Amino acid sequence: MARIPVSVIEEIKERTPIEDVVARYVTLKRAGSNLTANCPFHSERTPSFVVFPATQSFYCFGCGAGGDVVSFLMRIENLEYVDALRQLAERAGVSIPDSGERGDGVETVPRKRLFEMNRDAARYYRDQLFDESRGEATRRYLTERGLSQTVIKRFGLGFAPDDFGMSRHMKELGYTEKELVAGFLMKVSERSGKPYDLFRGRVMFPIIDVSGRVIAFGGRVMGDGEPKYLNSSDTPVFKKSKNLFALNYAKNNCADEMILCEGYMDVISLHGAGVENAVATLGTALTPEQARIMTKYTKRVIICYDSDAPGQRAASRAIDLLSEVGLDVKVLKLKGAKDPDEFIKKYGVDAFRDALAGSSGKFSHTLGTISSKYDENDPDARVKMIREVCEYIASIPGATEREIYINQASAALGVSVESIKNDVLLIINKNRKKRRRELPGEMLRNATGVGDRVNRDKLTHLRAASCEETVLGMLVGYPEYIADVASGRIKLSEDDFSTEFGRRAFSTICGIYGESGAFDIGALSEHMSPDEVSRLVKLSVDRSQLDNGRSIFEANVKALTDEKSRELAKSEDAFDAIRRMRETKNRGNT
Predict the structure, then answer these.
(1) Contacts 24+ apart (CB under 8 A), 517-521
(2) Could you write out the three-class secondary structure of 453-522?
């Protein structure tokens, strides 16, 4: 079979959160923002297996197993990479193309051409919306949703008729089927092998970047069809993990705070009501890249997701990601409505602004989420609830922040400050003792490379290997650095690595990025062994609590290349010494 498109792999993973898959095999317990369990891959009494919902990855600090949801299923079911993807796809209801629906020409279509094509497609959809006969039902639908003509035109909304008029129109403008498939305006049928218009019978939402260019589309069905929303897949001009809907407008109004919503209609309703600092993710859960993008425009993010259980779980994951990049995070849980769009229609924008002012902090949200899982009238359940709250507080690194949360938990749970503080300290001390027991051996093994089955020549290149590990960990954890390397902004090549593992890992990471313009840690499993993938996951986990700024990355790249130069100089000196010895010996024999 042809290589599975990255966009399909991303969709599979988006629909199968790692915590849901892992929970089918082990019992997960909340530990702060993460989840822990006894490792399913080795015997242990004390849990060392951790699931990181924020990054959708896992790592066992006991046996070193690690990866993403695909890696986990490969290990636990003894599956090959593609077989694991197929199993997850079947569970998520995602179709894997057998013939490579994406086509061979995606990367060969110039970016400028794709921008032009998206612009012309947006104009076609807009013209269809305002066509007196064809767009009447859609205009009525949008009006009933409370959208004014001004808002409709501001966001460039359109209509895709339930026919093949778009492709005919675009071909008349000179675009080819190959280009339309590359831009995901058309798709190739699995049955017939023929291309067809991807968006039909839908309200169209152009996705516009901060430079004002149309880069993709979202389409909402007006009836009861499925899927409710259909979104463009990734192209050379669009990466849904790195863009936010309406950021082109919100960027001028969000210096103090930004509102993060789930859907297009929520954002458009807010902007239409004068709340112009709202954005939304593009059919996916919030990604680390999107969180980092927000830091360029705002100081605080108010998460305003749907009030149902999935929405609140997504909010919890978003809190972790936004906090990790240094943003102040609050959560708005609307009462009497399922989302901002409905709330504004029922109560008005002034009531929404009042609700915004009462947004809860991240700990209040976490406290509410934990409490909702337990029956507070059951003493045993109440004890478990308080223990989980204490475990979360114990995971907070700052003493001042912990003290504030202890006081807040005491007031909310009706337990004395002293009792909660003592329990938190017990958990912290227990974790420290465990770490102290494990640390000496781990430090010795890591420092010397003795017994390292993954990086076998680490022992002979200790200084270089240390730099390599830092660089590889940052590449895996922060794919924007891969883009810097790929573009040549940062000079780094396979030859700058001293160990065989470092060279191969770097080459594989760059190869995955080069194929699609994106990096997916799961794709490593197709090229590297499970132990090698686990090592790269560990390196990214080790870096997660440290400064990962660009200057740090560049400094480590320089240290790596300098160390390689020193090693080469030493080897050349040794070669010269051997040559001189031979010359001296030869002269003595003459």
Answers:
(1) 517/107, 517/234, 517/236, 517/239, 518/6, 518/10, 518/234, 518/239, 518/241, 518/479, 519/476, 519/479, 519/482, 520/6, 520/9, 520/10, 520/13, 520/68, 521/57, 521/67, 521/68, 521/71, 521/476
(2) CCCCCHHHCHHHHHHHHHHHHHHHHCCHHHHHHHHCCCCCCHHHCCCHHHHHHHHHHHHHHHHHCCCCHH
Lowest-pLDDT range, 27-36, 99-108, 213-222, 236-245? Answer: 99-108
- Give the C-alpha distances (Å, rounded to integers) separating 401 from 257, 387, 396, 417: 22, 18, 7, 14
588 pLDDT band (50/70/90 cuts)? low
Nearest-angstrom CA–CA distance, 138 and 195: 26
Task: Identify the helix (H) or strand (E) that includes residue 329.
Answer: strand 328-331
User: pLDDT at position 1, please?
Assistant: 38
Average of per-residue pLDDT values in the chain: 86
> For the packed helices 417-448 and 399-413, what is the interaxial angle rounded to 10 degrees?
140
Amino acid identity, position 260: L
Q: How confident is the model at residue 565 (pLDDT cuts 50, 70, 90)?
A: confident
Give pTM, 2 decimals: 0.65
Q: Is the pLDDT of residue 572 over 70?
A: no
Instruction: Give 63: exposed, middle or buried? Use CB within 10 Å, 0-12, 13-18, 19+.
Output: middle
Helix then strand count (H, E) for the chain reads 24, 16
Question: Last residue of some domain: 58, 92, 126?
Answer: 92
- Kind of pairing, strands 34-37 and 328-331? unpaired
Same domain for 209 and 277, yes or no, is no
Give the domain-ending residue among 343, 370, 397: 370
Same domain, 79 and 151: no
How far apart are alpha carbons 180 and 169 in whole angstroms? 11
> How many angstroms separate the Cα of 560 from the Cα of each of 5, 111, 383, 466, 535?
33, 34, 51, 9, 19
CA–CA dist 322, 307 (Å, integer): 19
Within a 13 Å sphere around the CA of 501, how many CA atoms are in the beta-carbon half? Answer: 25
Same domain, 258 and 359: yes
Largest CA distance in the chain: 104
Query: Do 4 and 82 touch, CB atoms closer than 8 A?
Result: yes
Based on its alpha-carbon atoms, the radius of gyration of the chain, rounded to whole angstroms, reads 27
Q: 301 and 381, same structural domain?
A: no
| pLDDT (0 to 100) of residue 442 | 53
Alpha helix stretches (DSSP H) within 145-263: 149-154, 165-172, 177-182, 247-250
Contacts of 309 by beta carbon, 8 Å cutoff, 6+ apart: none
Task: Please report the sign of the dihedral spanned by the C-alpha atoms of residue 247, residue 252, residue 258, residue 259.
Answer: negative
Q: Does residue 195 sit in the same domain as residue 211? A: yes
Does one domain contain both 280 and 378? Answer: no
Length of the chain equals 590
The confidence score (pLDDT) of residue 576 equals 53
Residue 585 has pLDDT above 60, yes or no: no
Report the pLDDT averaged over residues 358-380. Answer: 90
Say if residue 387 is in the same domain as residue 339. Answer: no
Total tally of structural domains belonging to the chain: 5
Question: For the residues 220-239, what does the mean pLDDT come to?
Answer: 85
Which CATH number characterizes residue 51's domain?
3.90.580.10
